[in-house]
Design goal:
Elements (H helix, E strand, L loop, with lengths): L15 H15 L6 E2 L11 H14 L15 H12 L11 E4 L2 H7 L10 E5 L3 H9 L16 E4 L17 E5 L11 H14 L2 E5 L25 E6 H5 L7 E4 L5 E3 L5 E3 L1 H11 L5 H8 L4 H27 L3 E4 L5 E5 L6 H12 L1 E2 L1 E2 L10 E5 L4 H12 L4
Parallel strand pairs: 1-13, 3-4, 3-5, 5-6, 6-7
Antiparallel strand pairs: 2-8, 7-8, 9-10, 11-12, 12-15, 14-15
The chain binds pyridoxal-5'-phosphate (PLP).
Pyridoxal-5'-phosphate binds next to helix 4 and helix 7.
């Protein structure tokens, strides 16, 4: 009989978002009149902007005529998009990244989940706690962990606790690790890392010949000029880091699908014979073998984000969300919560300060205010006691949610 990948049985049964959905549906069944405000989603709500839509339509139009029709494109993405990325996202920020080091893909979720394929089975993987659940779950699926332990941790993974005490920047691991997932601006905590803080990690990776997998999906939300947008703004990062970027949160592409991964040609890792070999050709081989490129109209639409109008328009959508984040921060602070994030990231992370667990707070907010958020413990054991609100809601809903929370009795 065919055998199942046993690693899938190690996965936690109730994944965070289905469990939230279940509790909300149950509540709705008992209270069909309740007007529920959803502040839990990690999905955008504002539409694609006019410049993006125009380019998208042009791309579709070109596909309709024999003279401009396109079949398979280059697996790594069209040059026009990769060059726009290299120029705008890297060269203009002083980061030395070339167009041919960029791999355009259909999402950072896939890329962060697939990247472990080019690494050996015995690497020690370190993950921030709390974190975007994809890093842990795909490590489990790929057989890079042991069983799930009673305390919520997987055997074999190194967890890097991020909490109010360390400013949500983890301490360097005590023992040597080989692969480090870092995400800034961070999902779920909405916090950022300075150049000095990232330099510490780049230097650690250099000393230990480790590789940093840097997820920068929220870089467009940074407004503080001192905060780096890319790991490659840090000296030495070309030798130790892979970076993931996505147009999902930058420009509302969650349903359109376009992202990219950067692998510098100077990044090396150890081969079986002990020599140092570049990782670039491996990902090139993987990408061209298992992926056939993002659709042409979508890449045209993505390139339009870099046009002057496109830049202005995405900035204005981001301001809309960041105004929501400001309202969340101000109101939650006034109510006496300990509030983090929400100034250079769309997520506001807070602690009830009343010793209530994340799920108890979830149930209280759902039952008494009809407001849905995301329990921090769903992102990892160190998220216990914390809660996440997303600013990807409408302005009206944010105001309504805050008004309801102010009336809660504790
Ligand atoms: C939303 C998000 C992404 C983007 O995923 P896509 O597959 O590109 O939509 C990547 N990383 C984090 C941490 C995210 O929250």
């Amino acid at each position: 009989m065919a055998q199942i990948n046993e690693n899938y049985f190690k996965l936690q049964a109730g994944y965070l978002f289905p469990e939230i959905g279940r509790r909300v549906r149950e509540f709705q069944k008992e209270h069909p009149q309740a007007d529920i405000v959803r502040m839990g989603i990690g999905d955008v709500t504002q539409p694609l902007t006019p410049a993006v839509i125009r380019a998208f339509h042009e791309g579709v139009e070109e596909m309709s005529k024999a003279g401009t029709f396109k079949g398979y494109g280059p697996e790594q993405g069209y040059d026009f998009l990769r060059e726009a990325i290299a120029k705008n996202d890297y060269k203009e920020r002083g980061a030395d990244i070339h167009a041919d080091e960029i791999f355009v893909s259909d999402g950072s979720k896939c890329d962060t989940g697939n990247i472990l394929e080019i690494f050996g089975q015995n690497n020690i993987i370190a993950i921030q706690d709390p974190a975007y659940p994809v890093y842990v779950d795909t490590s489990v699926m790929a057989g890079r962990t042991g069983e799930k332990l009673g305390n919520g941790y997987y055997d074999g993974l190194v967890y890097l606790p991020c909490n109010a005490e360390n400013g949500f920047i983890p301490e360097l691991p005590e023992n040597k690790v080989d692969i480090i997932f870092l995400c800034y601006p961070n999902n779920p905590t909405g916090t950022t890392a300075t150049k000095q803080e990232l330099k510490k990690w780049v230097d650690y990776a250099k000393r230990n010949k480790a590789v940093i997998l840097y997820d920068s999906a929220y870089e467009a939300y940074i407004s503080d000029p001192e905060i780096p947008h890319s790991i490659y703004e840090i000296e030495g990062a070309r030798e130790v880091a892979i970076e993931f970027r996505s147009f999902s949160k930058t420009a509302g592409f969650t349903g359109t699908r376009c992202a990219y991964t950067v692998i510098p040609k100077s990044l090396v890792a150890s081969a079986p014979d002990g020599s140092e070999k570049p990782l670039y050709p491996l990902w090139f081989r993987r990408h061209t073998t298992k992926f056939n490129g993002v659709s042409y109209p979508v890449q045209k639409a993505a390139a339009a984000i870099y046009s002057p109008e496109g830049k202005e328009e995405s900035k204005s959508t981001i301001s809309y969300y960041m105004n929501n984040a400001r309202i969340l921060r101000e109101n939650l602070t006034q109510m006496g919560f300990q509030v983090f994030g929400g100034t250079n990231a769309p997520y506001v992370w807070f602690n009830s300060g009343r010793g209530i667990s994340s799920w108890d707070l979830f149930d209280k907010l759902l039952n008494e205010a009809h407001v849905v958020g995301t329990p921090g413990s769903g992102f990892g054991p160190a998220g216990e006691g914390y809660f996440r609100f997303s600013s990807f809601a409408t302005h009206e809903n944010v105001l309504e949610a805050m008004a309801r929370l102010k009336n809660l009795k504790w």
